[in-house]
Structure formats: structure tokens, C-alpha cells
Batch of 2 targets.
Target 1
Amino acid sequence: MYARQALRAATGLVRWAAVGVPTAPCPAHTTLYTCWRASSSSVSAAVSSVTPHPPSTSLQVFWKGGGSDVYPYLWLRDNCQCPNCFHSTAFARMIPLDHLHPNTSPKSVQVSETGVEVEWTDGHLASYPADWLHQRAFDTTRHTHQQCLYKLPKKLWGSELSQALPTASFPRIMADDAALLNFLTAVEQLGVVVVRGMREGVGEIERLTQRVGHLKVTHYGGDGGDNLLADAFHAASHLRQHQRQHYHMLTDTIVDFEDIGTQGSHQYHAISRRPMIQLDHDGSLDRISFNQMVRSSVFQVGVERATAWYNAMLAFRDLVCHPQYQIKYKLKAGEMLVFDNLRVLHGRLGYTSSEGARHLEGAYWAWDEVRSRRRVLSTKLGQS
Ligand SMILES: [Zn+2]
């Protein structure tokens, strides 16, 4: 179920190759997102009124059914659900990060039939469905749905399990999605399942592996202009030295990154959960997760911390967007760009159509494998 997530978590290098074939729709952006809708049918919220919430960095929403929730302005602006800001079928945030400012506030807020309408001081009109808001309340005790989506609760067992060892039928897993889900649920909750009914001979494990998830990640077609690369480790080091509070806010706050789509016939829904700046056990920088498009609108922290986190994130954004930490490079035909995906932020600038059609291909390499290869070669060549 989390094959792709596991791959993502293990990935280190991305290569991009520019080749001369026509552009095609990105396979990751052609699917429908149904999970929230399917799982949220039990909730039906309606807004009765709204008011600014002291100290005027957030909005308090009162529900018709009683109670209220508070939403930071920065979070609301960042998560505008209009078609310009959010791609509802690719489930990706479209609003560029440079549209977000620490002093973001509404010019006016109105309650509508469906939820809340906000006109921001920059003139942008936004609307937020009541159910959507209600599901994302900044109440850390209420996110059980996202918690279950992320990881299923473990069921502990002892010797008694030998009397009730979970089993699954290989032919049924291969043919029936519900059987596959039961199997994967048992594997995640119990950690052990016996699969029965496999044919003799080789190839069955491969078939099951293919059925559970794809193993090779190669994606992102589309236009390619200049590559913009920023050393986010350098920017994070600057933050650590000069804006220590912001730095710790980003190292100590867990953020969800949610990636939903299809690749070939394989549908995926990956959630990874980590701070934007992740440290190694010795306090050194380990990885940066700074993806505006797939950062989840579900943010499981208190409302004050959410605003503080946004201010820290915007300070970090100002650093990584500073030309001091960036390079620009335009790939030529036949070239490939390899970079550390856990450290270097990669963006692509637009290109003009007079340059002809270009197509980009990307692949992830796992750091474990790359380092292993490096060690073996180093030994073989007598350099270790
Ligand atoms: Zn919008």
C-alpha cells in the first residue's frame, strides 16, 4: 500500500533527461481524487457566523451545530480552494509560494450557503466549503481520519496468534481488490500473513509484487525550461545561525505531504510525515521537504503553532528563493541532471514555444543503493 511512499522515503537522487519527443500529459496529474470525499460522508458541517480571532491572525468559524474552530489567515490563504490556487483533480496546490505574505489578512469575510467566502487584501476571492474546513480543524485531537490514512494502528500479538494466523488466498488477492486490501491491512496491523494457493515455479512473487505496487518510479513529463536549483542546506544553515526560533519551528513541527495520482494503471496515495527541516541523530541536516504542491492542507498542530510555523516557513522561503543560494541551468538535448533530492530544491522555469517541444523524464535513485555502489567501487579501486 505504501510501496511508493517507501520508495519516496528512500530516494535520494533524481535524474532528468531531456529528449526530443512531443510533450504528453503528466501521468501523475490525470487522476481523480476521491479519498476525502469517500471518507468524509459522515460529516456535514454548516457555518453560522465568523469573526476575527485575537490577535487578528486567524478567523474563528462558528458552526450551526454548535462549537467553533479557529483557522490561521496564512493557512487559509495558502489553501485557497479556487481553481487558480488548487488543482482539484490532481489534488495539488497551484498557488505559488511567493504569493504568501506574513501579514496576509482578509479585506472581508462572508458566510455563504456552502461555507465561507473571503476577499483577501490582495483582491483575491476565495471560498472554503464548510465540510472541508470542518475536517481540517486545528484541533490535534480530531485528526483520527488522517491518522488512520497515514498508518494503521498496530495490533500486538503473542503465542495465541499461532491458533489464528491470518491467511490470504493468492488467487483471490490477484483477482479481487477487496481481498488485496484485507491482505495489506493484515500485513500492516499484524505484521504477518500467510499467503496460500501460489503456483509452483518462479514468477509468483513477482506477480504479487506487481499487484501490490510498482517498483520503479519514473515520471513527470512536461515542458522543460531552465532548471532552478537551490541549496536548501545552505539556506537552513543560515536560518539556524540568524533566525533560530524559525529554524526550530521548522525542525520540530511535523508536516504531512500527500501525493495522489496514477502511474500507468497503478493508483497511489502516498503520505509522508516529517518536519520541513529534518535533522540526523547528531543534529546535522538530513533532508529538506519543501514541496508546495503536495504539502497537505491537513495540518495537525494547534492554531498558534500553525501561524508561527507559516512565519518560519516564509522566512525559509525567502532564503531559498534568494539568488545567493540558487543556480540556473538549461538542459540541452541528451543531457541529464543528477541532484540530491533531499538537499537541493529543484524548480523549472517556463520556456517559450519557439524553442520547440521538449520532454523531460525523471527517475529516482535510492541513496542506499548509490552509497553502496560508491563503497564497493571505492574498495575495488583501492581507495577506501
Ligand atoms: Zn484562489
Note: The chain has two domains: 3-137+220-366, 159-212.
Target 2
Amino acid sequence: MDATILDEVAWQIDLPQLKQQLGIKEGGSYAAETEGMAARAEAIGRPKAMYKAGLIESRGEDHVVIEGRTFKSRVLAVNLEKVHRVFPFVATCGVEIEEWSSAFTSVLEKFWADAIKGLALGASIFALLEHIKEQHHPGDVSMMNPGSIESWSLSEQRALFSILGAPEDSIGVELMESCFMKPSMSVSGMWFPTEHHFENCMLCPMENCPGRRAPYDKELYDRKYKKDSRG
Ligand code: SF4
């Protein structure tokens, strides 16, 4: 099956939410400036995403084979134990808004532009998930991303990108030699059906992370993923 490409993602910036996120007071000196930036970004921005429904062809204690590519991760293998189909994806704020943001030189404007690009990326992830749910009815899903936890190396981006075909040609996301993506405001990973919600953050001890989506559970790895804990 070919990858599905979402290159016309509708998005609208929630101005009160953006200003709250940036600590900008309504009617204050920065409010008009951020409103202007947001309007321009909204006109220019084209958030995009692509994904594929991929079958798990074989599996082991520390790996799964999806569409002919082997992914090595103990946590991924355990999370996919009862799963037969996954949804590898790449989502991005888009090259258009990335180019727009590169013109800013002041620290403050760059900070605001990054927040706006984050909203564009959020819109593409939301559209992607809605599309997967509408088309494939996977039930409750969770997401894992190469490089987000120790157990799944960033280098596995190469296999993920190769499953999808040509994300650079399709949605403008380049996989660099370092395995980071360009535009940097992009996310790659796999959605998978699960009865037990999983967040990478549950296994990540990083303190004071502004993006944390779940508390760190320092006993979770030993309890659920360590081989000798599973009998
Ligand atoms: S806590 Fe932060 S760094 Fe760690 S996985 Fe979550 S978002 Fe990523």
C-alpha cells in the first residue's frame, strides 16, 4: 500500500492561547506584533504529514519486522506484542513556515516564531491522527518515536523513512546524515493500537522538560520491559 499524504492540513492559530503560552498580555506592547506574525504565518504555513498502514511480519524479544524493515527496540517489541498493524508517520510544520521563520533575527521573534511553528506541527499531528482513526479504526492508540527513549535509537529513522518512501519529495522533510529532520519542527514515529496508553515520557527521566506529557515512572522499565521481570 502506498503512503497517504496529507498536504492540505487546515489550521488556525488560537491567538489567546498563543499569547498565554508566550506570556504576552492582551493590549500590551507585544500583542499587536505577535498577532501580525500569527496572521502572516497562518497565510504562509502549510503543515503536512504522511503515513502508511504497515503490517508486522515477524517479531522477537528485542525487535519487530515491519514491511521488510527490522526495528530494534525492547520497548517497541513489548508494546507491539499484541499488535498486527502499525502506522509509521512523519508530520511537519512545513517548509513554507520554516522559510518564513528563518528571516527573523531577534531572539524574541525567533522564540515567537518557534511557538507558532509548534502550533503548525500540532495541527499536522492532529490531522494525521484523525485521518488514521477515520480510515483504519484502530481504537485507542499510542505513539513511539525513534530517539525519544534510550531503548529506540535515533538511527532507526532511516528504516522508518524508507517504509514511507520519499518524505522529502512528498512533504519536504529531509532526513539528515545525523538522523535529525529538516525542518526541525517535524515529528516521526509510529502510532499503534493499545489498551494501555503509552508515552515515551513515562520512561524518560529528563527533569523540567517543558514538553513532558506524562510523569516519569522510574519502575516502569523493570516492571514491564525488563526480560527477567516477565517470567
Ligand atoms: S520528558 Fe521531554 S524529552 Fe523526555 S520523552 Fe517526554 S518530551 Fe521527550
Note: The CA atoms of residues 32 and 173 lie 32 Å apart.
